[in-house]
């Protein structure tokens, strides 16, 4: 575990500049929002989950609809969740429909958003940061 100020940044995950995390699980990846993101959002009251089967593209500039996995709504704001990698949504975390606060209380475990079946892992993974690089990125914000 790396600390970036008050924020937890677990080792063994990959991170995007949009504050999503990725956990490799064979040919699949589990995706969620980081401790930093959930902290900045405040109390999460609703999570818009993607549909199983939805095709998504790795988020890049400028952002387009095909890069969105869904949204997280808090008492402060609504924030899009962008896909850190390209692929198809294989599974969603249905528990978030009843308990959206899991994004706040367990962002790296129970509060995950979805699982993706990837289409271009090797090339796209290079666009993401490891825990140490993400912690350094957070220090600059």
Topology:
Layout (H helix, E strand, L loop, with lengths): L1 E3 L2 E3 L4 E2 L4 E6 L2 E6 L1 H7 L2 E5 L6 E2 L11 E7 L3 E5 L4 E6 L2 H4 L3 H4 L8 E5 L2 H5 L5 H9 L2
Antiparallel strand pairs: 1-2, 3-4, 4-5, 5-11, 6-8, 7-10, 8-9, 10-11
The largest sheet has its strands arranged as 3-4-5-11-10-7
- Largest sheet data: 6 strands, antiparallel
* Shape-level CATH architecture: Beta Barrel
The total domain count is 1
Number of strands: 11
Q: Write down the overall geometry.
A: globular
Mean pLDDT: 94
Description:
The chain is an alpha+beta fold. It has a single domain (2-134), classed as Beta Barrel (OB fold (Dihydrolipoamide Acetyltransferase, E2P)), CATH 2.40.50.100. It has helices at 35-41, 95-98, 102-105, 121-125, 131-139; strands at 2-4, 7-9, 14-15, 20-25, 28-33, 44-48, 55-56, 68-74, 78-82, 87-92, 114-118. The strands form three sheets. A six-stranded antiparallel sheet has the order 3-4-5-11-10-7. It has a three-stranded antiparallel sheet with strand order 6-8-9. Strands 1-2 form a two-stranded antiparallel ribbon. β1 and β2 (7-9) form a beta hairpin. The longest helix is centred in the C-terminal third of the chain and has 9 residues, at 131-139. It is globular, with a radius of gyration of 14 Å.
């Amino acid at each position: 575990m790396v600390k970036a100020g008050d924020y937890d940044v677990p080792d063994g995950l990959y991170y995007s500049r949009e504050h999503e995390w990725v956990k490799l699980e064979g040919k699949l990846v589990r995706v969620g929002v980081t401790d930093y993101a959930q902290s900045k959002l405040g109390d999460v009251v609703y999570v818009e989950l993607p549909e199983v089967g939805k095709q998504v593209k790795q988020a890049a500039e400028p952002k387009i609809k095909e890069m969105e996995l869904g949204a997280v709504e808090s008492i402060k704001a609504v924030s899009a969740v962008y896909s850190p990698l390209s692929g198809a949504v294989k599974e969603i975390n249905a528990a978030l429909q009843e308990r959206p606060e899991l994004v706040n209380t367990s962002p790296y475990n129970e509060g995950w958003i979805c699982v993706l079946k990837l289409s271009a892992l090797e090339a796209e993974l290079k666009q993401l940061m490891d825990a140490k690089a993400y912690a350094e990125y957070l220090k600059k914000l």
